[in-house]
Each structure stands twice: as C-alpha cells, then as structure tokens.
Amino acid sequence: MKYYDPQTLDFLLSEVHHLEELLQADRYKAYDKASIDLLLDAVKGFSDTALFPYIQEMDEKPSVFKDGKVTVHEQFGPILKKAGEMGLVAAAMNEEDNGLQMPMLVVNALYFIMEAANNHVTGYLGLTAGAANVILTFGSEELKQRYVPKMLTMEWGGTMCLTEPQAGSSLSDITSSAKSLDNGTYSIKGQKIFISASDHQFSDNFIHLVLARIEGAPAGTKGISLFVVPQNHVNNDGTKGDYNHVDVVGEFVKLGQRGYCTNHLAFGDSGQSIGYLIGQANQGLSYMFQMMNEARVATGRMGTGIASAAYYASLQYAKERPQGRKLQSSGKKDPSIEQTLIINHPDVKRMLLHQKAIVEGCLSLILQCSYYLDKHATTEGEEKNKYHQLTEILNPIAKTYPSEAGKDSVDTGLQVLGGYGYMMDFISQQYLRDIRIISIYEGTTGIQSLDLLGRKVTMNNGEALQLLAKEMETTITSALSNEKLKNYAITLGESSKLIQTCLGHLVPFAMKGNHEKFLADATVFMDLFSTVVIGWQWLKMGLAAVDQSNKTFKAGKLHTLAFFYKYEMSRCKGLQKTICDDSEITIQMSEEMF
User: Fold this and answer.
1) CA 110 to CA 115: how far, in whole Å?
2) pLDDT value of position 330
3) Which end of the chain is more exposed for a tag (fewer CB within 10 A), N or C?
4) Residue 547, exposed/middle/buried by CB under 10 A (0-12, 13-18, 19+)?
C-alpha cells in the first residue's frame, strides 16, 4: 500500500525548497541530485520491505517489560542493524566525526519516508543521533572517542533523560542529583520517566544524557548540568564494561506507538551510577536545547509521516468502496444504476482534500525548516544570523502544526472509512492512536505556544518575526504577478497582517506586567500563526506548480491550494477576533467554578 507520494516529495525538494542550489555549497559537495535520488530510493526500498509490513504487528505485539529488561518486536533487530549500515544515524554528522555530512533537507526527507512507513521505528535512530550530536558539540574529546563511534553505527543506543515524576515539563523543579567524586566523575541519583528507546535486546549498551543538579548548584534552570551516564561502563579499548546501575524499573503502556518502548529509569538505586559532565557545570539545559530543538522538528516530521500514511489509507479505501449513487439533475437518486465509489461524493472529496492539504503543507513546512538549517550551516555573518532567527521562530510551529492539524487529518481519515474506520481490521484507527502522542512529545502544544508568543516573536526586538515577514513578502510579490495566484497572494498578505493586529493588542499587556493576560490565548495565537505559515507554504507550492508540465499533478496541487485557502485561511479572521477580545474568560474562571 502507498504511504507517501515520491513525486510530491521530489517536487518539494527540488522545485519548492531548492535542493540543487544547496548542493552547490562546499559542505555538501559530496552529493548531487542523482546521488540523492539513489538515497531516497534506497530508503524507500528499506521502508517497503523492512518497516511498513510490520507496523500493525508491532502494535499487536508491543514492547514488554519483565525482570528489569525490555523486549521489543523481533523485527527491530534487522531494522536497527540495517539502519546503522546505511548510515542513517550518522547522516547529518560532520565528516570529521565519521558522519555523512548530508543536508538536513535530505535527512528529514529520508526520515519522513521511514515514519510514513512505520512511525514506531525512527525514534530509536533519531534519539541516538541527537544524543551523539550533543556529545560531539559540547563534550570533551575523551567523551567523543569513548561513546560516539558505536552510537553512529547503532550498536549502542542514545537517550535524553529530562522528565521526572514530580516535575513533568517544569525542568526547573528536577531533583536528580550529581555528587562529585573528586576524580572528575559524579555519582548520579534520581528517577526519570517517559524515557523513550532506553532499553531493548538489540542494543549492546545505552548512553543516557541526564539532566541533574550538582550539589550546591543554584535553584531553578540555572543550576542544571548535563551528564553522560552509560548503562554499562566502557573500557579503555572501547568494549562494554561493568554495569553502571541504570535500572529500568518499568515500561509505560501507551495508547499508540506501542512498538516504541517508553521506560521509567532509576539512577543509583541498586548501586553507584557514574556520570561524566558534558561541558561546563550549570549549563546543561542550554546544551540539551540543541537536542530538544532537533527533537521538536523531528516530532513534527513524525506527525507528518503518520498523517501521510493515514491519508493514503483513506484514499485507497475511497477508490475501492462503492456506496450510494450520485444525485441526478432531478435532485433524486436512481436506484436502478450501479452504486458509485465514495470518492465521487463531494463530502468525501472534501475530507480527502483536507487530509491532502494538511499532509503536504506540513511536509513543506518541515522541509522549509530543514532548508534554513542548511543555509545556517553554509553561510557566515548576517546571513548566518538570519537563518538562525528563522529557524528559531519556525521551530515551535514545526512541532505543533503537524501534531494538531495532523491529528485532525488522521481523524478525518477515519470518517472517510465510516464504520470500518473504527474497526481494528483497518489500520486507520492505529494511525489515530499513534499520532495522539505527537502533540505531547517534546513539550505540549501549550508549551510550544507559550514559546512562540512569549519568547520567539519578541526576541531581539521582533527580529525573527520581521525576517519571516520578509520571506513571506517575497513569495507574495512573486505570486501577485500570476493571475492564477494573485487572489491567494492578497489573502496571505491580509492574513499575515492579522498577526500584527493581535500583537498590537497583546504586547501592551506584557509591557504593563500583565503577562497572564498577554499569554492566556497563546494556543489560539499559535493556531493563527501556524495557519498563515502553512498558507505561505501552499502559495510557494502554487508558484512551483504553475510551471509543471504534468497537467494532472499541476491541477492537483493548485486545486489543493484553493481548498486550503477556502477552508483553512478563512478561519484566520475568527481567530484574530478571539485573540483581541478583551474578556478574560479563562483567567477569571476560578477553581471552585469548575
């Protein structure tokens, strides 16, 4: 079964996000379009044969915790081995670190293919890559040499250990401790929950990145340090050593993504857990933000992959399922004629268009962020700062929109199937369970919305917002000269001004110290801002589509663009009205009133 469209992915990479222009940079001189196409084909083949056929079985036979160990589906053995051999963990790393130095535009495209095929898999790879990258960026040469090589080949797994039972997402309240042993190492003690991919039978060791407080450190986030805490010590010759007393004390049984294990870890309960400081003391959260930001885009990408697979599942069903008859010119149905396929009913077309518009808009957004990351890696000075700012402001949107709109898209896909969508016989219900976690991973929608409104749009006196506005204006200006796109360009310009209207209303509250009022409707602001950003992506796709020689492909893209602007961009005025309403409904609602 189809789970993504290779033609659309190639269109986005080449025509919308300028892959071949990126490949001109010295950093990516090892690649050309032909080699990238081979990579995409190889990962598609891997996904077709080793990933997609097992997604339902991984749900039916989930990870299991017993006697202090986690056992995952047996197919993860060949998957992780092959992924290591293909360099999928090392793909984005620098060549001097034994990486493949691949553009992030390509890396995220490869991971999207795998996530559309089987979203239970890539977390094992991505967390290991992220942890290795933190060590490479901030760790000592000794830490790099000791731990990273076997992480890049997927012989050893990597994790991020942030959340604690009493603190949740409030990292300022973590209590895990680090006691100096006066030999450059630390004794780590504490518990971490919701730790993904932290134990299974197909990895010889796990390298945990753990946030903890050194004794005497300042309170709050200013006193958090970051440590490498291996599950087993590593000998000087690189082999696995003695147990480091990182105990798996439980496995969380999840609603979805049941093949992707999620554990409760205890450090220092059964014996001493030794940790190794990364970088400087009390700078741990700033270091970990590198991995968290990478993980947020990756989470949005995962949501996009799930939504893509769900769209193609409902599309296939709609093309095969006969039901009902089309209305005749009389307004009545003729029972003597054959039933029509449900894809011919206008409301089913609306639902499928909704899915298609969300999926392709989300994918373009993920690739837009990837493009900016690549430009940041290949430019200097003001240009480098520009792409950093653009990456920063889009990061919470790239995590949130595919999570929330993607979830709505998958839910709509169930509706296409009618009663069968609710049945275990069809995979659509699994996709809905799988995607439900995406808006919670790596900071909930509320947290991302606070980050966008409370930090990103105001940082550096609004510099990132102004830069993003210029990027949109460039697209609008180009589209205004095309009669087919002119009205959409005008609508995008008007909708983007609604963001400024909202900020003009809200910022004075922050300036007066009324931050609760300023941030009360941050999630509504996120909805408005995200919708405008996806509208921008669709206008970019429209500009690229008008010159396509394939008439059917061109018509499909322009029709979906029209759908997004009619059904989604039209919501923007209502969102702006809600945000600028002076009533304080949520603030004034007391606990007792509930």
Assistant:
1) 9
2) 64
3) C
4) exposed
